[in-house]
Amino acid sequence: AGTGTGSDDPGLFRDRILKFSDGMRSEGMTFMSDYLKGPHRVQLQLKDPKGYQLFCEQFMEHSNIGSANTFYGVLTKRPPIFDLKNQLSNIKIPVLVMTGDEDDPCIKPSLFIKKTIPGAGLIMFPRSGHAINLEEPQLFNTSVAEFIKHSEAPYWGPRGQGETEGSLT
């Protein structure tokens, strides 16, 4: 939440975010129409056309200045997730990482987070993009509820200390 996408190529990500920010400032939210039709939103459109339409309508109601400021002031300033390895490895509480298997920019960062935080688990939603909570609300809510229940169990501790890299199985 808040970092991950853009971690593989921070320069390209920053350039795209600046373009979006400038476009929202100068042209309003209509500048973001293509963004809403992107490959990481298509699964929501396929699974729930009415929900996708509502998502788009609500997105377009956002303040263009507020959105531009968020894109510029937050997204361009955040570090790539891979730069946060030391901080992440010190997290001592259970963490659930959730991503869609068709949200390509978030898959590698999600795996990195899962491997770096000792008490992290990972759920990858099949045939899902970036809006997993909207695409699969029941599965999303059930996953969160199960995480809360299991995170308090003794077996949900830090990852085992055995070999992880290079092991066969």
List keywords for this structure.
globular, 9 helices, single chain, two-stranded parallel ribbon, mainly alpha
Describe this entry's structure for a reader.
The chain folds into two domains: 10-75; 84-151, no CATH class. The protein is mainly alpha-helical. It has nine helices and two strands, in the order ααααααβαβαα. Strands 1-2 form a two-stranded parallel sheet.
Task: Walk me through the topology.
Elements: H1 10-27, H2 33-36, H3 42-47, H4 49-60, H5 64-75, H6 85-89, E1 95-100, H7 104-116, E2 120-125, H8 132-135, H9 137-151
Parallel strand pairs: 1-2
Task: Count the domains.
Answer: 2
What is the overall number of helices?
Answer: 9
Helix content: 40-55%
Protein structure class: mainly alpha
| C-alpha geometry | globular
Query: In which order are the strands of the major sheet placed?
Result: 1-2
Largest sheet: 2 strands, parallel
Rg measurement, Å: 18 Å
Terminal-residue CA separation: 30 Å
Topology, number of strands = 2
Residue stretches low in confidence (pLDDT < 50, at least 5 long) are none
pLDDT average, as an integer? Answer: 91
Order of helices and strands: HHHHHHEHEHH
What percent strand? 5-15%
